[in-house]
Amino acid sequence: MRILIKFNILLILVFAVSIGITAYVAHNFLQDNARQEVIQQARLMMGAAGGMRSYTSKQVGPLLAQHESDSKSFPPQRVPAYAATEAFNYLREDYPAYTYKEATLNPTNLRDRAVSWEADIIEDFRNHPERKELIAQRDTPEGASLLLARPIAAAPPCLVCHSVPSAAPALMIATYGSDHGFGWNPGEVVAAQIVSVPMSVPVEMADRAFRTLLLSLSGVFLFTLALLDLGLILIVVQPVDRLSRMANEISQGNLNVPNLPEDGWDEISHLAQAFNRMHASLLRAMGMDQPE
């Protein structure tokens, strides 16, 4: 087997082992990195929803309340939870995989009522008041889902509409009734902002990055292998091949062969020098003049 083939086989084996170790480490790293990226995006979206809540509570709500006497129905746009949810629905046009809900134990608008697993998150915030954020993974019929949740506590702006029915706007009572959405206490955790995204999103992100990494590494390896092969041919294979041909000529009785180049201080040059001395010694022993 030629030395170049042996060298390539050795390099391929080394690369295969190296890429296997790299793939194992990189895959776990990319999975975690993609998960953290999705969580960070969820935080930004939740922050945007929180900003919409504040804007509605401080500016839109009071403005609409001034014209409430001229209206025949209660405008839901003055409710922070409604505004945040609607704004997020527009955001979903660019991020369709993400969902947002202000899950509430006792909401005015029943579309915000917490289902069982959302109620468990709210109870967890109630039991751990020091906890300001919860990151969890849950199984759904569509597959695993990653969620980010933050608690919502009843505050004075909310209590205007959610303390007792008699204090709430008449149009709100006419629209939603007086059977639910009341009895909130100051500082009590009554709801949770929840952003959910399928686990398939970070998994696909990680797999895409993983494939790109493997293709890049493979391309770099092939380019490096080509350069190493070229260097090996010029530095090792060609000088050794000349030495082999010269030895073959001498073994067949042809002693009139030129000396090998001896430039350099590497092992190949030392081998050429030794071979030339052996050739000269053989010529002297046979009483022949050394060829120029």
Task: Please explain how this structure is put together.
By secondary structure, the chain is α+β, with helices and mostly antiparallel strands. It has two domains: 11-199, no CATH class; 208-285, no CATH class. Helices cover 59% and strands 12% of the residues. It has seven helices and four strands. It has a four-stranded antiparallel sheet, with helices on both faces. Helix 1 (3-66) packs antiparallel against helix 2 and helix 1 packs antiparallel against helix 6 (200-251). The protein is rod-shaped and about 130 Å long.
Concise overview:
The protein has 292 residues and is α+β, with helices and mostly antiparallel strands. The chain has 7 helices and 4 strands; from the N terminus they run H-H-E-H-E-E-H-H-E-H-H.
Give a count of the beta strands, DSSP E runs of length 2 or more: 4
Give the N-to-C terminal Cα separation: 34 Å
**Major beta sheet, strand line-up:** 1-4-3-2
Question: Based on helices, strands and strand pairing, what is the structural class?
Answer: alpha+beta
Characterize the overall form: rod-shaped
What is the element string, with H for helices and E for strands?
HHEHEEHHEHH
Number of domains: 2
Strand content: 5-15%
Radius of gyration computed on alpha carbons: 39 Å
Summarize the biggest pleated sheet.
4 strands, antiparallel
Average pLDDT over all residues: 85
Main attributes of the structure:
7 helices, alpha+beta, 2 domains, 292 residues
